[in-house]
Amino acid sequence: MAIRYIRRPCVCCGSEHTEPLYEIEGIRVVVDEDPATLTLNTQICRDCGMVFINPVPDPEFYAGYYRSYQRVAASLEGAGRGRKRQQQYDYCVRSLAGAAPGRVFDIGAHDGSLLKLFREDGWQVEGCDLSLSGREFARRHHGIALEQVSFLDIERPAGCFDVITIFQVLEHIIEPLPLLKKARAMLRDDGLFIIEVPNLDRPSRHNLANYFDFEHVSYFQRQSLGNALAAAGFVVSSSEIYARNQALRVVARKSDHPPALVSCYAENRRRVLDYRATYTGIIGQVEARLRPHLSGPVILYGAGQHTEQLLREVPVAREMNVLGLVDSSPEKWGKEVLGYPVHPPRWLAEQSAVPVVISSFTFAEAIARTIADHNPSLPIIELYGHEED
Prior knowledge:
By secondary structure, the chain is of the alpha/beta class. Helices cover 29% and strands 26% of the residues. The protein has helices spanning 59-67, 81-96, 113-120, 132-142, 176-186, 222-231, 265-290, 305-313, 364-374, and strands at 5-6, 18-31, 34-45, 51-53, 56-57, 103-107, 124-128, 161-167, 187-197, 218-219, 234-241, 248-254, 297-301, 321-326, 336-337, 340-343, 356-358, 380-382. Strands 7-6-8-9-12-11 form a six-stranded mixed sheet, with helices on both faces. The longest helix has 26 residues, at 265-290. The protein is globular. The two termini are 40 Å apart.
């Protein structure tokens, strides 16, 4: 698949005065079974400090990628998804401070589970998402009909929603300002815009879930998100850092006099360069643990984001003879991730002396127990641990 890139000015202030900070080459992606290789260039605006990917793969590439997006809960609880959505909903409830139920729209609603919680409290719910599997999950399990379009293609009267939510989606949007302005137009004058984004001030520093990923094309912390919201006619009324994953959560209101832009160039530049150095060290650690196993076959346990990151960004991982992937989610069984078949855990019982790489940071201990339950004779390779291991 040939990738067309587009160059863009700063997605917050429109400046062309940008500085490259971090390049990642050879990122492997499969879109509709068509493989592609990406190069990502993370840049910073020298005027306002916004961090974003530039140039960026064009919207056609991302539309194809998200249509086939498969990270949907395997059950109504879905590997922590239910807890995550409940925590996000609890934040919404606190922000609403007892307001009567009205109309809510969720941008990037994915499997509809956040809207389900709103509906249970009496809200009229609507949402959109590009994922075919997410839309189907929302319809089948929650009875919620999501629109399979970009939010920019949604047609509604001005001022028709009391609340608009966008959780872990804004960072995926190539042109965030038009989306923010459309959200403002659709909100009532006293409506709330509730946002959650990964936090550039506290990116993960411990594993291969690279904060600078091709899915994320813009990067925010408090000041840069505040700048973008102000440029769209909002003012931030409250914010918090969610303790579990350090995500940034913000509640914004419409304003006829939003605050002036405040540059965060120096601190954001330092954050990106510090992270680049840390991530280079993580790659080296993972490669050192995999290199002794290049002479024979291996199995990867995990068919999610971590495995995708491992196979995209670790050169040694791409040299491994991978027999297949194992995952606990039934919806993934029989499918492929980056060209490798996904099997259920019981498949491990059929294997003999094949090392199993635990492709996870958060759930490594639980996965190790699952491997031992199905086949205690299989060697286990954990990618993380104490530095002296």
